[in-house]
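Sequence design from tokenized structure. All designs in this work follow the same two-part layout: the structure record, then the generated sequence. An example of the structure record is given first.
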């Protein structure tokens, strides 16, 4: 059984993330989406809200599970008996950071390897932070997130006003 973990903040999940999830789910038996519950990183949505949104938008992909985690990713991978970490690469700017993290993780736990998926070009410019900023100024984010996530974003922004 090949289990992969796709970790990230997913604050919120975008069409770029969803594209990586669909593609990664085809190459592993089980894909666990690990929502980083990091109190030091300020997020718009709580970890529970992020998990619920991802569950909703991935409900049609049978081999996907969603969980939040804190602490070290390699420990979470061990706990889940996962040997593959999935990450997405958008631009060259992602590469340097991702390479460092992948090498560090491998050094700490040699059983874990990182598999990179290059973004589909139609999603290459999408990031959760741009989506949030755009939505906060009332921009139309329907090209960047699913209709459900768009509704959640609008509700959250209204709640925070
Ligand atoms: P993190 O805070 O760990 O970077 P993100 O939620 O921003 O979490 O991203 C999680 C992963 O998804 C990262 O590997 C990131 O490069 C990738 N990713 C984010 N947006 C896209 C996109 N539009 N296309 C492909 N990969 C993406």
């Amino acid at each position: 059984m090949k289990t992969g973990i796709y970790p990230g903040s997913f604050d919120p999940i975008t069409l770029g993330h969803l594209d990586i999830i669909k593609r990664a789910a085809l190459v592993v038996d089980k894909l666990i989406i690990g929502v980083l519950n990091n109190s030091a990183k300020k997020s718009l949505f709580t970890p529970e809200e992020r998990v619920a949104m991802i569950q909703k938008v991935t409900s049609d992909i049978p081999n996907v599970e969603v969980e939040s985690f804190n602490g070290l990713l390699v420990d979470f991978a061990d706990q889940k008996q996962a040997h593959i970490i999935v990450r997405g690469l958008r631009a060259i700017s992602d590469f340097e950071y991702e390479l460092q993290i992948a090498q560090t993780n491998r050094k700490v736990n040699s059983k874990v390897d990182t598999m990179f998926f290059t973004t589909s070009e139609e999603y290459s410019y999408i990031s959760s932070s741009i989506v949030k900023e755009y939505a906060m100024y009332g921009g139309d984010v329907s090209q960047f997130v699913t209709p459900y996530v768009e509704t959640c974003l609008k509700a959250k922004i209204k709640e925070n006003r």
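The chain has a mean pLDDT of 95. We note this feature because it recurs in several other targets discussed in the main text.
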